[in-house]
Structure formats: C-alpha cells, structure tokens
Amino acid sequence: MLLGSFEPNLMEGGRLALPKKIREELAGPRVVLTIGFEECIFGFTEKTWETVTLPELSRPLFSDKQGRDLRRKMCSEAILIELDSQGRFIIPEPMSEFAGINQKVIIIGAGDHFEIWSKDKWEEYRAEIS
C-alpha cells in the first residue's frame, strides 16, 4: 500500500526520483502516469492501472457515450514510463504544466496509487479538505 508524504528534489529538465518507500511498493521499473482529476499527476503500477480502468473499459463501446468519453480521457492522457535504477524519470511536460509543477514537489501515497503535486497546490488542497 502506498502511504506517506515525501518532498524529493525536482532536478533539471523535470527529472524526479521516486522515494525508496514508493519504489519498494511498486516492485517494478514501470509505472503508468496520468493526470489526476485535481491538479496533480497519478502514478500506478501496470497491474493496478488495469484493475482501476477495467470497469470503465467494460462499459459498452457503441451505446455508452459517457463511457467512450471517459475511456478516451483515461487512456489518451496516460503514459507508461520506465524508471531508471535509482527510480528516476522525467515528468512529461504536458503533465507537469497541468499540475503546475515548478520547483517544489510533494509525492503522496494514496493507497493504491501515488500522486505528484506542486507543493503549493498540495498545501492549498490540503487546507480545503481539512
């Protein structure tokens, strides 16, 4: 289970290293990233991504417009990335822009996935939900 909050350094070019505790839970070098519903980036293992998206992919393709729209949003904005041996990767620029990520980031565990936030946006959001 992905738990905790971490404040890693964002390196030049949008390069980020996932914290060791997150990497240990992922148990593999590949991660699916997609934009969140709030201004953040979601990260999933491939298996969890398949599990999370299965209900939407099971909706009827031809007769369910809302299902088609959600399927397009989920899949067109997702990307499979490969972590290097230190758990580093480059945040895709469109995702970084969507989440407003600049210098300070926070990675939070959210149970079945992790989220990457601009530290400022996370603090604002956290204040709203408190």
User: What is the CATH C level class, in words?
Assistant: Alpha Beta
Number of individual domains: 1
> What's the CATH architecture name?
3-Layer(aba) Sandwich
Q: Count of helices?
A: 5
How many strand units? 9
Report the structural category. Answer: alpha+beta
Can you summarize the main beta sheet? 6 strands, antiparallel
End-to-end gap: 23 Å
CATH topology (fold) name: Chemotaxis protein chec
CATH homologous superfamily descriptor: Transcriptional regulator MraZ domain
Adjacency order of strands in the biggest sheet:
1-8-9-5-4-6
Mean pLDDT: 95
Shape: globular
Q: What order do the helices and strands follow? A: EEEHEEHHEEHEEH
> Helix content range of the residues, please?
25-40%
- Work out the strand percent: 25-35%
- The value of Rg in angstroms is 15 Å
Uncertain stretches of 5 or more adjacent residues: none
Description:
It is globular, with a radius of gyration of 15 Å. 22% of the residues are buried. With 130 residues, it is of the alpha+beta class. The longest helix has 12 residues, at 46-57. A hairpin with a 3-residue loop joins strand 2 (10-11) and strand 3. The strands form two sheets. Strands 1-8-9-5-4-6 form a six-stranded antiparallel β-sheet. It is built from five helices and nine strands; from the N terminus they run βββαββααββαββα. It has a single domain (5-46, 79-129), classed as 3-Layer(aba) Sandwich (Chemotaxis protein chec).
